[in-house]
Amino acid sequence: MFLTKTVILKIANPDNDLVETMQKYSDGMNYASEIVFDKGKPIPAMKLQQEVYSYLRETLKLKSQMSCNIPGQVAECYKTLHKQKKAKWQKVRFSPSSMTFSYKRDFVIDENMVKITTINGRKAYSILNYDYAKQYFDGSWKYQASKVVKHKD
After folding, report:
1. Which of 7, 21, 40, 56 is 20 to 30 Å from 108 by CA-CA measure?
2. Domains of the chain: total
3. Please, where are the H alpha helices in the chain?
4. Is residue 27 part of a domain?
5. Residue 61 lies in a domain
6. pLDDT in tens for each of the 153 residues of the chain?
7. Does 50 map to a domain?
8. How many CA atoms lie within 13 A of 74 on its CB side?
9. Total-model pTM
């Protein structure tokens, strides 16, 4: 049995690269969303990836892993929407307030720093390490995905 834990940390020094990456990521999510919406039904992530990957890489200049993550997220969103019988078919819009990363593919983390792939390459950011979070850096936890969320504070 696996235990999933959400640990909230704060990036101490976010910069324009991170903000710009979030915007491009959101643009990619909305582009993929438009493709699925126009088809009128959910499509598998791999099929969506084949349709949007080159646009995400060449036009939006997203890195490879991001261009693979986006179709999966969008496909899953529409699949969930479709399963909700009460929900009518509608276009999903994504705001530039968050993005999801895969551990060791587009982010790595230790007790004091997170290294994130941005559109301008991998960058290191200091994290504010809260006392409660230190236990998750002792080597006994396995990291999977991470979500960077933009907050006003």
Report:
1. 56
2. 1
3. 16-39, 45-54, 64-83
4. yes
5. yes
6. 778 888 888 999 899 999 999 999 999 999 999 999 999 999 999 999 999 999 999 999 999 999 999 999 999 999 998 888 777 889 999 999 889 998 899 999 988 999 999 999 999 999 987 888 888 888 888 888 888 888 876
7. yes
8. 35
9. 0.88
